[in-house]
Please model this.
Amino acid sequence: MGRLLAVTLAQAGHRVTVHEAGASDATTSAARAAAAMLAPLAESAVTESGVVRMGNHGLKRWPELIAQLTLPTFFQHNGTLIVWHRQDTAEASRFQRQLDTTARAMPELQAAQTLDAAAISAIEPALGQRFAQGLYLPGEGQLDNRQLLAALLHQLEQLKVELHWNSPRSPEEFSPGQPSTTGATGQPDWVFDCRGLGAKPEWQGLRGVRGEVVRVHAPEVTLLRPVRLVHPRYPLYIAPKEDHVFVIGATEIESEDMSPASVRSALELLSAAYSVHSGFAEARLLEISTQCRPTLIDNLPAVRFNGERSMQINGLYRHGFLIAPAMLDVVMELLNTGDSELARNFDLRVEHLSDRPVCKSL
Model:
């Protein structure tokens, strides 16, 4: 979120300075560990309609944002395939009812299509006759998060943005718009806080939700789109990247523990992936990473003014890449006009530190 906002502000002609607590490789960021799936309808099973609308907005905006970057970023919108094992049919029926409810309420989304074994094999040949039933969610997509982070960094450098790595700062250290004793401002006109969990000391209710992700190289597996496995305990996803690299994940643990992944989580993720395609048995483990998603008390994102010219953007939770373009467009509306119609359309909470809303939810 911080890199995307900094690039957009610099492209708009603003002079931008970035302070980042971590290094330029973003190894301490949840964004680096993410799978970066862009699946608003699939996520409607676990989130509110406002986030779904933000995700649908993001699907349209990502190609425009990526096109403005010098370095390439892998992006596809071949849809999402949902599958399940026979013993989980009841859970799949519940999941499908949730998607059907979303589709009726939001006709702008493409509805899920029911597939039999032959139809699954037709759109995802590698899965053959492994599953008797499935759902296809057309139009959904994904991007390569690490390529995007690198492309945004390159763009910041090209735009001559002043970058300070390993430089943790907080909004309280700045007095935006205030003149110094010499008459010069000596301060930025605006401060934007995109620190995620780094803002926890100033934002009550902000917490981390632990997630564990496995990256593998599986030359024997070819998938044309993200595949989600319906499961009663955890919603597994397999996101294919370029060159037969796959991101496997979706553990969610209410903990801010950043220690290495547990044996149980790794076994569950890898066993579930193997149950989708036996070719994962010969995959090579590239990385097992752990990160904590910055999450607010209601699991929804928010924008908050903690001063007239100081704005905090946080709580993107598990939907960071899905909703980042929508959050960006809201912030730019607020910056340019002092109000945001998009925020109202998205039911996005925009408030002052005193909890007086700037844009009320619908």
Notes: Residues 210 and 292 are 4 Å apart (CA to CA). The chain has ten helices and 18 strands. The two ends are 25 Å apart (CA to CA). Residues 180-184, 356-362 have pLDDT under 50 and may be disordered.
